[in-house]
Structures are given as structure tokens and as C-alpha cells.
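This part of the workshop introduces the protein records we will be handling. As an example, a complete record with its sequence and its C-alpha cells follows.
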Amino acid sequence: MPLFSIAFILIVLFKKFRANYSLITIIGLGFALISAFKANQSGEALSLRVGYPETHAWWGERLVIISALLFVIALVWYRLKNKNLFFSKILSYVGILIAVAAIVITALAGHSGASASWGYKIKATNSSSQQ
């Protein structure tokens, strides 16, 4: 998600990237959406076995939503990119904001997942070394 979010920002801001990278960026955002959805589903299945990390699950759900929103915005932008319409310019700016949000939410979901998985082990190691 972060890679294709950055790619989307670049193709919106710089015309020289549009011809070669627009289609691959849209396809990549589609795969990122599918990946976010599959990760959410597998996370729910795993939580039934190991417990429910609330913060990670909350960010993961938001990531699926923001991924879908970014994909739809990018797809519409791709169809309108060569037209000099006011709507396509507004869509460009909204898309950039959504792409930045997708990057941030991906990082927050990843960090909260790592904390839920490894946080207790690191705390246990730190507390036992101080005794």
C-alpha cells in the first residue's frame, strides 16, 4: 500500500510519470486493496486463536476502507487525467490526501500489530535483565 500510494502521488504531481506509470499504479492499488482485505480476514481468523489485539484490528479495518477509497479515487482520476476538468483537479488533491492517509494508517496498523505480537516479549526480557 505505501509503495503504490507514493506512486499515485507521483503520477498526480508529475506529468512525466503519468504515461509510463499510471496503469501499473492503478493495478498496484487494486492488488493493495485485495491484500488489505485478505490481511483483515486472516487477522480475524488468527484472533480467534491468539486473542484480539483491539488497536491493531481497528487500524486494520480502517486500512481496508482507505484502500478501497484510494483505489476508487485513483480509478476515476485515471479515466479523467487527460481532461482539464475542475473535478479532476479536485480529485487529484483529494487523492493525494487519501494516499498520505493510507501510508500513515498502514504504518499505524503495522506498528500496533508488532506491538501486540512482540510487546510482551520485549517487556519480559527487559524486566528480567534488570533483576
